[in-house]
Amino acid sequence: MNRFEYVVVSIDGDYANLKRTDTESDEPKLVARALLPPETTEGTRLLYEWMEYSIL
Hints:
Elements: E1 3-12, E2 15-20, E3 29-32, E4 45-49, E5 52-55
């Protein structure tokens, strides 16, 4: 399974904008906050693996 690393750029209501940090990517990814760990805030580094987000 693939592993992707992200950083939370901003939080807007029920959604968070994530920027990929393991490769060059200009386009932020919009993700529902319900899919992220509850303690996620702006600047949090996340790992996406096995269809699940966890804090690095």
